[in-house]
Amino acid sequence: MRIGELAARTDVSVRSLRYYEEQGLLTSSRSASGQRHYTDAEVERVRFLQRLYTAGLSSRTISELLPCVDTPSEGNSDAALERMAQERDRLSEYIDELVRTRDALDGLMVTARAHREGLRTPADTSPRR
Predict the structure, then answer these.
(1) Residue 29 — φ and ψ, nearest 5°?
(2) In this predicted model, what pLDDT tens digit does every residue of 41-94 receive, in sequence order?
């Protein structure tokens, strides 16, 4: 199948498929005129890549995990598990940082609300009609 059909079958843009090839995540054969051709196996490969991207993994990390998929072995599995553990630790640190940032923002909002209340005049607190 050509790149447009692969894009349609996987709901991934042609641009993304080209990027995957540039990163070494996807391969194709070329026709005499240079058009990319893919097998049905690439449909599942692209769907798998999309799941990894959705999980927040970078192209670099994905390329480090693919040997476990492409040439399964105990060593490749161990390396992939170690890389995934590192990625999970990185994400946990990022989540902790986001929680600290959210908490700081909550504190600023409390201060801003208190300041705003202090700016109200007695007329501002009368009931509205």
Answers:
(1) -100, 165
(2) 999 999 999 999 998 899 999 999 999 999 999 999 999 999 999 999 999 999
Query: What b/e readout covers 85-99, taking b as 16+ CB neighbours within 10 angstroms?
Result: eebeeeeeeeeeeee
Which tokens is 72 given?
């399964």
For 21-57, b/e burial (b = at least 16 CB within 10 A) is: eeeebbebeeeeeeebebeeebeebbeebeebbeeeb
Contact 28, 21 (CB under 8 A): yes
CA atoms within 13 A on the CB side of 10: 27
pTM attached to this predicted model: 0.71
Amino acid at the residue 37: H
Strand stretches in the chain, DSSP E: 29-30, 36-37
Q: Could you give the count of Cα atoms lying within 13 Å of 95 in the half-sphere of its Cβ?
A: 7
